[in-house]
Design a protein that fits this description.
The protein is α+β, with helices and mostly antiparallel strands. The protein has 16 helices and 8 strands. The chain has 3 domains: about 220 residues, no CATH class; about 55 residues, SH3 type barrels (Roll), CATH 2.30.30; about 90 residues, Alpha-Beta Plaits, CATH 3.30.70. The chain is elongated, with a radius of gyration of 42 Å.
Length: about 500
């Protein structure tokens, strides 16, 4: 029964050994190198004509007849073969080893798999039917415990993500996807180890052949390599994204439009850099020579640089405009003769939507003048016309009263930043005296506030008897010596 008690301990030490290999530490193994393997490795340098005595043959026969000695002998032979394969691989390996080989990921995975196989071989779990049932039960319980532990770990990670999201004020819901992927990978790994262990316990040949084949070992090594590279890329990508979101939010907490403008652009740039770099690393890890790809990319880059000068100009102009914060997503601007709300900004173009719903796409290279109608704050400018027989001072008093009532309103008051500014009599038109005034409001709220001010101003003018003129014309008929016209005709002409 002691062999079955060792299984949980082995799984724990197995994890320590794997991560120890990753961080360059040695947590030890279950046993030292087999004596037979050491003896065989040292004897490989001996002379080929070494004499084999009768005692050696007798010892070999005794070893093969004894079950435990035979199992140990076979394990030593497997270790020797693996050492020879590893030595041959090191000799055939290129001078510039992949990144994961340089930091020991592949070696750690290979050694962990070898250690697990050796543990199963040394502890004969298929000695009897009782041993097989007991061993299978223990393996299934351990696998079920790990699966439940992975599920519980995923829930804790999700709770930690929610707490962190509330603390920093940034949505981190996309991290749930990584948690689900990690949970799936761990479940597959645990299930595969359980199936392999059960196959060894019940001596199922095709299971052993499948998991211990050279192709499967290569697949396991490549899979861990790909997962490691993807893990590093995801960590860098998300860390940069969270940091940028937090920094932009802290720098401009009062106006989230700058975050909405800059964050997608910076994230796209970082994503392209991370994708290219880790794509090349991943190709190198799976054995593809990336040198020709880099050379081809350089040639294609030069060709694109010469053939797409306008696009390059768009990128440079867009980078300057965005860096100087001339406008943001949500601003109302006039670009290239088109006025609308900025819906999307990329490094190459701007998309505007006007009041009729028409979308305009303006490349940065075509922008010469930018008119931002909602930068920091806005003004609603009014040209108020009154008739010539109305006292302008009375009009100013009514306008101030309307402004006070509007600023006291719960809905419109918070949108107004200052009192009504009356600039005075601006001009004498054909049929009206024009008074110019303006209201300072929050960005993009000037039209909402201005329409309400006009409505209230019309009611106030009606109550005060202030007439708002409409176009009219007075006709004067002058008699220059002609026969006098009838009075009725003159009055009709005047009307």
């Amino acid at each position: 029964m002691k062999h079955y008690i060792l299984i949980p301990l082995f799984l724990f030490v197995f994890s320590l050994q794997f991560f120890g290999q990753f961080f360059g530490q040695n947590f030890g193994t279950f046993s030292s190198a087999p004596a037979f393997a050491q003896h065989s490795a040292s004897s490989s340098d001996a002379k080929a004509d070494e004499v084999i005595t009768k005692d050696d043959v007798s010892n070999l026969i005794d070893t093969l007849e004894n079950d435990q000695s035979r199992e140990k002998f076979l394990g030593d032979l497997k270790t020797l073969v693996q050492q020879q394969k590893a030595q041959a691989a090191e000799e055939d390996a290129p001078l510039a080893a992949p990144l994961t080989e340089a930091i020991g990921v592949r070696a750690g995975v290979s050694q962990a798999v070898d250690t697990y196989e050796k543990f199963l071989d040394e502890n004969n779990l298929s000695a009897s039917l009782v041993s097989q049932f007991v061993g299978s039960s223990i393996v299934l319980m351990i696998a079920l415990g790990f699966l439940l532990g992975v599920r519980k770990m995923s829930k804790k990670i999700l709770k930690m993500v929610d707490k962190l999201s509330q603390k920093i004020g940034i949505k981190l819901s996309r991290l749930n996807v990584y948690t689900n992927v990690l949970q799936f990978i761990l479940k597959v790994l645990i299930s595969a180890m359980a199936v392999y262990t059960l196959g060894k316990i019940w001596s199922i040949g095709f299971v052993d052949a499948f998991f211990e084949s050279v192709q499967m070992r290569a697949f396991i090594g490549t899979s861990f390599t790909v997962l490691f590279v993807a893990f590093v890329a995801a960590v860098i990508w998300e860390a940069v994204g969270i940091y940028l979101s937090y920094m932009f939010k802290q720098a401009d907490s009062q106006n989230q439009t700058r975050v909405k403008t800059l964050l997608p652009i910076v994230r796209n740039v970082v994503m392209m850099v991370v994708f290219v770099l880790f794509g090349l690393v991943l190709l190198s890890e799976v054995g593809i020579n990336v040198t020709p790809l880099l050379a081809g990319a350089g040639v294609i880059g030069v060709a694109i640089g010469f053939g797409a000068q306008t696009m390059v100009k768009d990128f440079l102009s867009g980078f300057t405009i965005i860096l100087e914060d001339l406008f943001r997503v949500g601003d109302v601007v006039t670009l290239g003769g088109n006025t609308g709300v900025v819906e999307q900004i990329t490094l190459r173009k701007v998309q505007l939507r006007d009041v009729a719903g028409i979308v305009y796409t303006v490349p940065f290279s075509e922008i010469t003048t930018i008119q931002n109608l909602t930068k920091d704050y806005s003004f609603y400018v009014m040209d108020i016309g009154i008739t010539y027989n109305v006292d302008t001072d009375k009009v100013v008093e009514v306008l101030h009263q309307v402004d006070e009532d509007l600023r006291a309103d719960d809905e419109y008051g918070p949108l107004i930043l200052d009192k009504l500014e009356i600039m005075g009599v601006d001009q004498f038109a054909d049929s009206a005296v024009v008074i110019k005034a303006r209201i300072k409001t929050l960005p993009i709220k000037q039209w909402f506030v201005g329409r309400e001010f006009n409505r209230r101003m019309k009611h106030a003018f009606d109550k005060a008897g202030i007439e708002i003129p409409f176009p009219q014309r007075t006709v004067t008929v002058v008699n220059t010596g002609s026969p006098a016209l009838p009075q009725a005709v003159i009055e009709g002409a005047v009307d």
